Amino acid sequence: MKTVIPIELDAIDRRLLNKLQDDCSMTNQSLAEQLHLSAPTCLRRVRRLIEAGVIERQIAIVAPTAAAAGITAVVEITLDEQGAERMQAFENRVVAETAVQQCYRVSPGPDFVLIVHVPDMPAYHALVHRLFTTEAHVRNVRTFFSVLRSKFEPRIRL
What we know:
single chain; alpha+beta; Arc Repressor Mutant, subunit A; Alpha-Beta Plaits; four-stranded antiparallel beta sheet; 6 helices; 38% helix; elongated
């Protein structure tokens, strides 16, 4: 993840970010028209937000049932030791795993909460074997399997 450079967001930046969170595929011209800006000004602002790390990425969000069915799980992980080196080593291992969609260090409770998506239960078992073996210094794993996704909104309220 890119480091965020602290910048002051004005009202136009906030409107621009809200529009992009709705649909980042719109053209610069369309975005500029909706915000009542010139196209060069709009593009300059977007580039500034990207360079500052305020905009991390521009992606398409695929509905899990549309492209490939699978299993989504929320996994709580507690390590056997909470030293900085152990925590970082585990986090590096998890972040490199494509099945892990989100990784959070949390407190209190478990050390990490992961959101994972795998094609099926054998793939989940393989993931467990790769990430949560004794070599990873995991003391406890608690998994919740999703039966229905009622809401998924990656928007950041501005």
